[in-house]
């Protein structure tokens, strides 16, 4: 089977890229032939170095690197991205069984959707966020610091000053959302949800559109080893981008109230204010370094998302290492936390978080939560191999619908001549 994975970057600078890179590696290890198409030049994750994995770079600019007017136009519709992608797909030496798109908001733009939909192979989209429905992508009111309740692209949505930057940015995002709807038209879409909450929420937001929903967990790539000893740690840890919608400020405030150190691994606009509150901010670190740091210093890992986050992966990775997790009631990661058994599920507010952090001063409780977290993870680990197996099962089912007859793991497919009429 030959699979094309499309993402805008080739290194894990965020959750979507991390999943794209890791899934590409997992598929290659499972015997599939993988082509990884990256939109923007930049660092390349070593995971993409595999004999069955071929990488194609389109050398497109990140819209945030362009002058404002050009970035706006390119973000709404990047015709050059469509042209380069079409040429790259035409040049592939083997026919494609399935196309899998992870991102399109930073360089690809909606312009690549018609290119992908016109191919004689199924297209799958993983929904790491809400861009398929919501203009700002996170279904969150930045003006009110709360989740959105409006129907995307309704008159009330268009009028809402919800963008984190300005009304002008909102207008550009609305233009991109409109272009996305035009690009997909009435074509049937197959989408993957990474949590049950996303499946329920996006099912409602996309109601009336020809979308088929599939549910596959993100992979958790943690080396198998003995559980950590979180009772020996001293800090509440946060790993990720330092923003208000992800609740980084809540961790600092709650830790201060509870009298615990706060350790932040990541960067973002709240960095200076977190340091001003006495928090330790160490910037981004390699995954292996983060894992070692958490095992040595973390009593718990906290992700108090204010928005309806579909992850984050840091919660799953903490549980896999035997470190208690504190998840927001609004995040998809809460589905993996057994409240009071493997961690705590808390409202994303400073008061409830401070109370939860205070409970973490009990060494016996922290040790018990950590042991249970590790045991629960080991019962059914969402490993990279399990993730790749689930993806391949979906790809094969969709390819069968397209009349693609597989010729083995590395061979190209044969087609029965009816594929072109299916879209």
From TrEMBL:
Residues 229-371 form the Glycosyl transferase family domain. GO terms for molecular function: glycosyltransferase activity. Residues 14-136 form the Glycosyltransferase subfamily 4-like N-terminal domain. InterPro entries: Glyco_trans_1, Glyco_trans_4-like_N. It comes from the Bacteria. Keywords: Glycosyltransferase, Transferase. PANTHER family: COLANIC ACID BIOSYNTHESIS GLYCOSYLTRANSFERASE WCAL-RELATED, GLYCOSYLTRANSFERASE. Belongs to the glycosyltransferase group 1 family. Glycosyltransferase 4 subfamily. This is Glycosyltransferase involved in cell wall biosynthesis. It comes from Methylorubrum rhodinum.
